[in-house]
Amino acid sequence: MYSFKVSSHVSFPLEGLDMRPFLAKESPSQVTTYDLLSVICHHGTAGSGHYIAYCQNVINGQWYEFDDQYVTEVHETVVQNAEAYVLFYRKSSEDSVKERQKVVALANMKEPSLLQFYISREWLNKFNTFAEPGPISNHTFLCQHGGIPPTKYHYIDNLVVIVPQNVWEYLYNSFGGGPAVNHLYMCTICQVEIEALAKRRKMEIDTFIKLNKEFQAEEAPTVILCISMHWFREWESFVKGKDNEPPGPIDNSKIGIMKGGHVQLKQGADYGQISEETWLYLLGIYGGGPEIAVRQTVAPVDPDSLHGEKKIEAETRAL
Q1: Residue 256 phi/psi, 5° resolution?
Q2: Overall pTM > 0.70
C-alpha cells in the first residue's frame, strides 16, 4: 500500500488558543485558553526520516530545539514556522500563576506553626502544572479508614509532601477537598484484612490442589463435572494474588446448552474437568452453576434381573 507525507504548512498560535467555541455547553471548565508548550516535527518521507522537538522552558519562556543529544536555544519564530507533526498545549490562566506565587510566598515566610500537614504529591504536581487542579485529593495515599494502606506504607515519602499550616489553610480554602492529614500511620484494620485475605487464598488453593490430586488418582471416576475456564481463570488469578477481588458466582452458562430438559456440555466449549468434591467445595464458597456432568454415575446391573430379561426375551421369541 502506497503512502505519502503531507508537507503543507499549518499555522498555529504560540499563545491564546481559545477552545471555548468547541466545548460542550455543560463543560464545567472555566479556563478555555491554551498556550503552546511543545512541538514535535518530522523531517523526511512517510517511509523514513528523523524526529526533533521544540520545547519551552515555562520558567523563563525560552524555546529550545531537541535533536537527539543536541539541545539548542531557538527564537520563537523558528517554532512558529516549523512543520509541526504534533502540538502540545496547556491551559493558560493568570489566576493559576498567581495562586502558585502566593503558595511559594507563604512557604518562604517560615512562619512557625504548631501543626504540619501532609498533602498528596500527585495533587501538588497538578497544582504546579494544571490551570484547574480540582479539589485536594489525599485519598490517593489514604485507605478508606483514614490510615496508610500497608502496601503503600514503605514508600509513603514518595506519595506525600509536608507543608506548613499556612500553606495548607490557603490551599484548602482555595480548592477544598482533603481530608486534612497531620499524622501518618499504617492502618491496622487494613493489615488484618490483608492477613485474612491471604489466609483465605491459601486455604482455597491448598484445598483445590488436594482435591484435584485425589481426582487425578482415580482410575475410573464415577462423576466428572465441568467448570467454565473463563470463571476458573478469574478464580485462579484471585487465589494467586494477581487480582484483589474474588470472582463472582460460578458461571457455566456459556459452556452449557439445554437439551431434553437437561443442561449438557456445549460442543467446543472452553471448560475444565473437576471432581464432584471439588465442584461442591467451590460451589459452597461462590455459588452459581449450572452443574454440567460429562460422566454420570451408572447403577450396577443386577445379574438376576438380567437373567430374567433374557428369559422373557426367549419366551417372547417362542411365541
Answers
A1: -115, 160
A2: no
Q: For 267-270, which contacts have Cβ atoms below 8 Å and span 24 or more sequence positions?
A: 269/226, 269/228, 270/228, 270/229, 270/230
Residues ≥6 apart with Cβ < 8 Å to 239: 201, 204, 205, 208
Identify the bridge partners of residue 236 per DSSP, sorted by sequence position.
Answer: none
Cell 518521507 -> residue = 45
**CA dist list (Å): 34 to 92, 94, 228, 245, 290:** 5, 12, 52, 41, 57
Distance between CA 151 and CA 147 in Å, rounded?
Answer: 12
Q: Which residues contact 125 (CB under 8 A, 6 or more apart)?
A: none
Whether 84 and 12 have beta carbons less than 8 Å apart is answered as yes
Bridge partners of 51? 42
CA atoms within 13 A on the CB side of 4: 3
For 56, left (φ over 0), alpha (ψ -120 to 50), or beta?
Answer: beta
For residue 6, the one-letter residue type is V
DSSP letter (8 states) at residue 266: P
Q: Which among 101, 93, 107 is positioned nearest to 161, based on CA atoms?
A: 107
Query: What residue ranges do the domains of the chain occupy?
Result: 17-92, 95-186, 197-295
Is 187 in a helix, a strand, or coil? coil
**Whole-number Cα distances in Å, 291 to 7, 224, 235, 270:** 64, 10, 17, 15
CATH for the stretch 95-186: 3.30.2230.10
Tens of pLDDT along 2-13? 678 888 888 999
Are 88 and 38 a contacting pair, CB within 8 Å? yes
pLDDT per residue as tens digits for the range 191-231: 999 999 999 999 999 999 999 999 999 988 889 999 999 99
- Which residues on neighbouring strands pair with residue 70, listed in sequence order? 67
Looking at domain 197-295, its CATH class is alpha beta
